[in-house]
Amino acid sequence: MPETRRPLIAGNWKMNGLADESLLQIKDLAARASKISAPACDVLICPPATLLRDLAKAAVGSPVTVGGQDCHANGKGAHTGDISVAMLKDSGAHYCIVGHSERRADHGETNEDVKSKAEAVLREGLIAIVCVGETLAEREAGTTLSVISDQVKNSLPLGATAVNTVIAYEPVWAIGTGKTPTVLDVQTVHAHIRSDLTGLMNDANRVRILYGGSVKGSNAAELMAVENVDGALVGGASLTAEDFWPIVNVCI
User: Catalytic site residue 109?
Assistant: First the structure.
């Protein structure tokens, strides 16, 4: 991995976590990370918004940061149940995930929606983690690369740079299923994303591209060794420090 791309290991807690247990987990993770004098990667937890402020406070002084799982494209307004990037930032967030496949599938979010949200993230000075990925039907139809290209090109926010934007490749069929693509599959898609970015950004070679989809301690080292894989977006295995740490430890 080029020296200019610092790995990012991000945990997406999704709709999991209550206050007491979540505080125990973030404190455990922060304590483990703090024992490393100069961590070689960034460590991020994206909890439900209800936990953001408390977890951000608990992680102060450690290498662990927190982020949001989603946001609204507008800064404020009559949007019942939504949360703005300014609110996330006010709660201690440094990153925000946008375009996760569960948002695209469950809430019908389009590339244009994702782009608008990512631009809102950049306006507030946070880092956008833009998710892309193909379904099983698209993979079986042989359209994986064209689907990924369409998502990258049309979800990437205006003003995206290697400093404010991260891409996360998550094959939809691998999320939470225990299935993972082959190393060659991952390498092919990540190289393709890098190529697409080259046509869209001046600093494309410095953009971090994460892999997500059933990442766990047992396969993390193999996945992180793949060219153009600059970290991971981890779901279920990030819910406890005990399960998440072996993944972080691969890069730290």
Answer: no
137, pLDDT greater than 60: yes
Please tell me whether residue 39 adopts helix, strand or coil conformation: coil
Structure tokens at 247: 């993944």
Mean pLDDT to the nearest integer, 88-109: 97
pLDDT given at position 1: 46
CA distance 205 to 228: 9
C-alpha 73/C-alpha 70 separation (Å) is 10
Q: DSSP for 206-251?
A: G--EEEESS--TTTHHHHHTSTT--EEEESGGGSSHHHHHHHHHHH
- Answer yes or no: are the C-beta atoms of 84 and 72 closer than 8 Å: yes
- At 176, the pLDDT band (50, 70, 90 cuts) reads confident
Check if 79 is active-site. no
Catalytic residue among 72, 100, 190, 192: 100
Q: Which of 102, 134, 138, 170 is catalytic?
A: 170
